[in-house]
Specification:
alpha/beta, globular, six-stranded mixed sheet, single chain, Purple Acid Phosphatase, chain A, domain 2
């Protein structure tokens, strides 16, 4: 199951995990703005609570970074552990997917690539509620392999020929980030591309790729999407009934 922006909202995280249990989900992947603010007591409590809930449910919970995460600590995580595998945060039940990390669940290949622009950065405090490392770096995108993946997860959405998703597409830096995500999509040619960031629910087709933007923590059923990896060719995903 993919989940849109959780924003450190423990009540929504509980709902996501409970809903995953009801639908016999084995893995949850949060597509950014998960809420990794472990430099603050409430952030540590949130992360530890999600890890505990995931273990109790026996569901692996993975996340990519959004713009609203502590990117200084994430940088240290990747420096110590590398970018080739998901990193325990704090244990195997809750893991960070570094930018560009490829991994498999069953026979399906995934790649995560977090990052996006904070439109409200001027109202935040650098090193406390905002970090320069949030942005996708074009030089890093150049280094991504062209090897295909089945499912790509990003926080920002790919550029869509000038079609706007939300007001964020009136901001040049945001548009530039969407172009970089489109470059990633074009490199790895996924069958499905799942993202968040825009706090809305929308789908479109980019060539052969099905793009799905998921909603945020206040949006209930529009914030999650369940796939059945038992479908050998991933021709369809399951829209399910929500409790």
């Amino acid at each position: 199951m993919f989940a849109g922006d959780i924003h450190g909202n423990i009540e929504h995280a509980e709902w996501v995990i409970r809903h995953a249990q009801q639908n016999e989900v084995t893995h949850i992947i949060s597509v950014g703005d998960f809420g990794y603010w472990v430099h603050k007591p409430f952030g540590r409590k949130f992360v530890n609570s999600v890890a505990q809930l995931a273990e109790q449910a026996q569901i692996k919970f993975l996340w990519i970074d959004g713009n609203h995460e502590n990117h200084d600590i994430i940088r240290d995580l990747t420096t110590c552990n590398g970018r080739n595998n998901p990193i325990p945060t704090p244990n195997e039940w809750l893991q960070y997917i570094p930018r560009g990390c490829r991994f498999q669940i069953n026979e399906t290949t995934f790649m995560g690539y977090g990052g996006a622009y904070s439109v409200d950065w001027l109202d935040r405090v650098e090193g406390d509620s905002w970090w320069r490392g949030e942005l996708i770096n074009p030089f890093d995108v150049d280094l991504i392999s062209n090897e295909p993946v089945d499912i790509l997860m990003t926080h920002e959405a790919p550029y869509d020929n000038g079609n706007k998703i939300t007001y964020k597409d009136d901001i040049q830096v945001s548009i530039a980030q969407r172009h970089l995500v489109k470059e990633i999509l074009d490199k790895v040619t996924p069958q499905f591309h799942i993202c968040g960031h825009h706090h809305t629910r929308v789908d479109w087709k980019d060539g052969e790729t099905e793009v799905s933007v998921l909603g945020r923590d206040t949006m209930g059923e529009d914030s999650v999407l369940i796939f059945d990896l038992g479908e050998a060719d991933l021709d369809a995903y399951n829209e399910v009934e929500y409790a």
